[in-house]
Model the fold of this input.
Amino acid sequence: MPAGGKDIALINARIEAGQAKVVTAAELGRNTSQDVDVVTIAYQAPISGSSAMLVVPVAERGVFTRAEKIWLNGIQGFPGPAPNERLGLVDTLVFADQESKDPESTFSGSDLLLELIEGKKIEVECLSVEGDTYRSEFTIGQLQFARMYVYDSPLPASGSVALFGTIRAGSRVLLNKAQGTVIGRGTRSSPERPSLSLTAEMFDMDSALLGGNGDLCNSVALAVPVLDQAMLASLFGWWQGQFSAAQGAGAKSAQIELAEHLMELIMAQEFLLTDSDMKLEK
Done:
């Protein structure tokens, strides 16, 4: 254990014993108690830079050999290399920034991801290498595989440099309420603008956390270990800089609720911290 501080193994032992002191950043802002093991925070980041890998049902077994092109609700997807087409399935990568094939439509890949998580029917159009077109439809509940990848999820600006130093490759997170993992640094991460790459299964995501009104965002929740007093002070400053105004207005945002949900998972021993030496600095 570090001198004068804690380590992840000790905090996890306290979680498993039901003895950990876990608070949200909002509670930390109201209570400066020094006896804290974990602080949960949540924030939103633009959905651009996100994608989803789906195994899409297209046709019956043995009908065609390979997909040449595929569209989901008019959004072009990119067939993967796995030879699943003889099973009637197509591994399909969809990007949030992809535009509709209809030049008059404002529907985008991010709208597709939202509708998928909402459980709406998705219409499929697939062109095979033989030149035949197949049409089908599905909902997320019918898929065998649906995983979101976030290539660039910037941390909130104020205090994010100190926060970034606590995160490791492999750290567990909540992504739109589904339990996920930090893959590594975001594609546009820099010392001045720390950013994360994340992944999570889509089946347990909450569409309400993606926002709306044409400005879709991912909601991310982190469990930050409080290893020493310096980290506690940094987190207190982070909260004051990010959300104190909203809290003072009496608003209970979706991000505060997500941080509370993560706190409850930890206290129920359903979420442990990741003990890793794989730092994210380049």
